[in-house]
Amino acid sequence: MKSGSNLERILEAGEFAVTAECGPPKSADGTVIIEKAKLLRGVVDAANITDNQTAVVRLCSMVSAHLAHDNGLEPIMQMTCRDRNRLAMEADILGAAALGIKNILCLTGDHGCFGNHPQAKGVFDLDSVQLIRVYKNMRDDKIFDCGEEIAVAPELYIGCAENPFADPFEFRALRLQKKINAGVDFIQTQCIFNVPKFKKWMEEVRALGLHQEVKIMAGLTPLKGAGMAKYMKNFVPGMDVPQEIVDRIAAKEKGAPQQEEGKKMAVEMIKELAEVEGVAGVHIMAVEWETAVPDIVEAAGLLPRPSLA
Amino acid sequence: MITAERKPLEEILKLLEGQGKVLVAGCDTCVAICLTGGEKEAEILASELRIMAKKEGREVQIEHTSAIRQCEWEYLDTIADKVAEYPVVLSMACGIGIQSMAEKFAPKLVLPAVNTNMLGMPQEHAVWLERCGACGDCVIGETAGVCPVVRCSKSLMNGPCGGSHDGLCEVTGPNKEEIECAWALIYDRLKAQGREALMLELRPPKDWSKSSSGGPRKMVKEEAKPV
Amino acid sequence: MAGAATEVAETPGEGKTIEAPAKPVDPRFEPEIIVFACHYCAYAAADLAGSMRLQYPANIRVIKLPCTGKLEVIHLLKALEAGADGVYAAGCMEGECHYLKGNIWARKRVEYTKTLVAELGMEPERVEMYNMSSAMGPRFAEVATEFTERIKRLGPSPVKRAAAAAAPAAAPSHDPAAVTHEEGQQS
């Protein structure tokens, strides 16, 4: 065991893992996270705590992760390279470990131009691949990036994101290889709508044996309505949303009927993804719709969550 | 080459607030080549400022001049007499030239008429693209001749990121222009060179202390210093 | 300094064009207009207009260029600086320039000069480019008439108005700048 986190135990035991996402508020109100923690604890094995997602300032990931942790929800703390240099990232991981936070997701970060402070200087001292290696070395070799020894090393379960649908497509499986070489333990993919394309990527991944070297969690986003489906199809770069999906949800009436259909489609997708060889779990990104997660997880037959001591 | 863009006239007028005797100084190297601040453009700006003054009924003395390069003392000597006649110089050179003027003619007021923006090259006539980040630690030998510091929006050393699509960056220009994904280009070129294995190598964290992040830099060539 | 595009009269049914005068047109205002005409087409058309005895305003002063491609932004600005109320380039029809693309370059420079003029808070309509062939004597006259009318509606150039405002007593009575002194008191 590298960290002994719940997520690690579940994945290492070969159980189908379930994670979700938890967005901190754009305010100093920690109770928002506490409420989300209460909603998701016991429903998922761990939850990502986002880090200034889309370059929009929110209550920081570490504190939100701490609040979640203290309220029964195991966090996966997200860390982007956009807002911090290597000193801060090393210091923050020591801090996270001191608070008992074990799961860390290393991300490059959306460019600042998308957020609410587009004039800020993007740091990008390290990229996500280098960050994985820095954290791996801190954990396993007990050294900082500068080579100095760390008296008490952090216990970490290191994750990162991968986008099976971005370009160059032929390089995607290789990029995963690169992250594995850097030291990543688990990955979560960007949300999948085009299952055949995802299956094709998994074929290439399996051909390289990568599914045995890293735990791959398939990402999905439940659609709240036809509007959201169309938005994701047309305005989110790199998002591949087949027209059938848009049509299916649009066929229902707006409001509750579309929401129900969205949840239904999510459940179907979870079941389909669970059948794909090499998929070790599912990551449900219910953007500002965390309340949908318990229903979806239950309907997918994934409750109760295993409890491994 | 260094490129620059003329500041909006409003901003230039604000900088010149109240000044009636101004010398507009062009530079005939980089900023002339990028059609921003050569003698031609200095003449145009001087005419514009005079028209503005006439419109407002102000008496002014605004002339233009130009040096081959404003970043070398010897060339500044060639315009020193003209500069001496004016209390204010509005320089159209890049930041280097403006600062050289400010230093040579200190404490005379030397104002920037342009925003120096990049080390770039003309991809085609009248279109300049950023190419070099002056990072002091060039890696383009391993990235197929493409600079990841300034041609990748996130300066990734191990790109591409998940935002790359169709060879384009997730970031677009200020007028929604498309930006090439540097790492897509690097990958394609490495493949053409038969060196795509380099893509799998983990490039370690960059030594930013060699860039301007480490402090203003200085270069000395002892062997060339006069005795 | 607000971009002083021509103010438009709020007349029902009238769209926002430069044709609507902002203030009453002073019949005594005689615009001073500079024309840069190319030797091969526009100037020849001017000659033809003359030999056809076509009437066109005496307000225009024609400067002959070998080609409008010779025209630079600074020439247009200097004309305005000297107090011209309007300035236009007249070149060959597009695709028929004697020097192939000179008139294309001229148009680009005229368009660019319009942006500079707007930046200065003056009406970009004071600068224009027209195309005509050497056989188009009537067109030369028509353009001269149209442009003079346009400038009459726009009024004297702000450069001229300011000069007049500075020295109204010294201006002779027939000087258009002087009689428009009252209307000239604006930004």
Strand and helix map with partners:
The complex is a heterotrimer of chains A (309), B (227) and C (187).
Chain A: H1 6-12, E1 17-22, H2 31-40, E2 46-49, H3 61-70, E3 75-80, H4 86-98, E4 103-107, H5 128-141, E5 157-162, H6 172-182, E6 186-191, H7 195-207, E7 215-220, H8 226-235, H9 243-250, H10 256-274, E8 279-284, H11 292-299
Chain B: E1 2-6, H1 9-15, E2 21-27, H2 30-33, H3 39-55, E3 61-67, H4 73-77, H5 80-84, E4 88-91, H6 95-104, E5 109-112, E6 114-124, E7 127-132, H7 182-192
Parallel strand pairs in B: 2-3, 2-4, 4-5
Antiparallel strand pairs in B: 1-6, 6-7
Chain C: E1 33-38, H1 42-51, E2 60-65, H2 73-81, E3 86-91, H3 102-119, E4 127-131, H4 137-154, H5 158-166, H6 176-179
Helix pairs in contact in C: 1-4
Structural category of chain A is alpha/beta
Helix content of chain B: 25-40%
Instruction: Write down how many β-strands of chain B occur, each being a DSSP E stretch of 2 or more residues.
Output: 7
| Number of E strands of chain A | 8
Number of domains of chain B: 2
Order of strands across the biggest sheet of chain B?
A: 3-2-4-5
User: Which CATH class of the largest domain in chain B?
Assistant: Alpha Beta
Average pLDDT for all residues of chain B: 96
Q: Specify the biggest β-sheet of chain A.
A: 8 strands, parallel, barrel
Number of alpha- plus pi-helical segments of chain A: 11
Oligomer: heterotrimer
What is the mean pLDDT of chain A? Answer: 94
Largest beta sheet of chain B, briefly? 4 strands, parallel
Low-confidence stretches of chain B: none
Terminal residue distance of chain A: 12 Å
The CATH topology of the largest domain in chain B is: Rossmann fold
> What is the CATH topology descriptor of the largest domain in chain A?
TIM Barrel
Low-pLDDT sequence parts of chain A = none
